[in-house]
Predict the structure.
Amino acid sequence: MTRTWEITDTTDAARARITTARLATAYGVPPLERARLVASLGAQLRLCLTKGGTWRLTLETGTASRATPEAGEGVLHAVLTPSRDAAAAGQPPWRVTVPCPEAFATADADASVDDPAALAEALLGADEDTALVLDRLSEQEDLVVFHREELHQTNQGVVALHAELDAAGRAQREAFAAERKARTEAENARRRLTFLADASAVLTASLDHHEIVRRLPELLVPEYAASVDVWLFEQEGERPGPAHPAAAVVAARTGRPQYAAAHPGGLPGVDDQPPSALAPQRPLLCIPLPTRQAPLGVVTLSPPGERWDPDDAVMVIELTRRASTAIDHAQRYQHNRDIAETLQRALLTELPAPPGLGLAARYLPATHGLNIGGDWYDAFRQPDGGVIAVVGDVTGHGLRAAVMMSQLRTALRAYAVDGGSPGRLLTRLHTFLHHLQPDLFATAVIARFHPDDPTLTWAAAGHPPPVLRTPDGRVQTLDAKPGAMLGIPLKQEIADHTVPLAPGSTLALYTDGLVERRARGIDPGIARLAETLGSFGSAELEADLEGSADGILRPLLSDSERDDDVCLLLCHLRGSG
């Protein structure tokens, strides 16, 4: 069905609009779509009347395109085109399409709009459509209000969430800052503890107090101090003189650390003092070197920067205390070492000069550690004209070993006056030591020379074997079965051994400090001694036995420090010529 109207004025436009509304109602166009159609048509008709001329409105019903979702349903097409005389001639037509499910129903759509009743009915229908649209708009407004309220609450929730996130962020940043601070403090504490442990190991490794005093500034400068001055009291009761800061005098007198500066240092366990007159612009920390009796001295330090970190100051004070302990131990060690060495050297006798027999002895104390006092040598004549040569080693070190060595030496000389072979003498020494000092042991080797006997008699008790060089340059180790150590809780009879002895022969008696090395044991050292002794000629030994003794020591002791005392006794039987 097709309907056409010519529109030239307002009346025509009103009739066309009313008729369109009635037809849309008759064809079942939904109220909302119908209201949109009528409103859109009215607006377009006002534009046409403004432009003037004649316009043609065409309404046509038909079937929707198959491409649309409503394919097969009825539709109502509205087309508004200008006539040729219109001002908008040539302008594209206005078109709109609305669905009409009842497009083919027989409705009285041809009623004239001139009839007042029809006009009233059309207006009422338009009002109903408008009311329906208003209801729908009211519903939409309520929905918009609901969504606006929901959006407002959502916004408030988002704002609250942002506030919580911001608070959580601040808390997290504070936690990270606290963690970084704790990690930094822990790292600094670990650094200080590591330094304290390493520095303490360096200071306690030496038994020379002068070395300890020299190393202390090297350890502290420049990280923990700009300068370090160590002042030791050389004599008991001596105190710093005027050349030292006043704070050092107070530290020596009170035994407490003192801090001299223009402003208080706030250091734990440290007393504050006025600035030093010797260095008024430089803070000074004066730390006493404490011992159980009295301070050994005072260490005066200046800070590496403007002032000390309190934790660094505590660490420096602790290191100074450990240095004081190390210095005190080193001084006591040196004192005991000097006493033991002096005593031992006083107890070592001068060698006799029997006819036909050359003797040369060397005694060297250990280079470090209190290892002095156990090694000894002796040589003396017996009443029958024989000569006893002995080298021994008392277990233990220090003064006690030195005293025990002197008692063994005296006992051996006393037993030898009554005569007796080396084995018999060692047996009597064994009994003597076992009853006198049950917890001390010793080793010894004794050789007996007699001008009327062309043999060497010797015996050993737990001692390294003698080494004999014959006149033809051959060297042999006298390792026949020795006795056990002297003093062990065992009854024993130590046997004698003999070996032919020709003029020009040289016998080497020694202690284990000459041949034993921790990394290699004792056997390689004995082999080196035999090789070194064999390298000397008979003429050289005959002419300079003392020089030969030094020549034996040099290669054997040059490869390491002496961990133990060293004794060497060379006995050379001179040639007949």
Q: What stands out?
A: The chain is about 45% helix and 20% strand. Confidence is low (pLDDT under 50) at residues 66-71, 104-111.
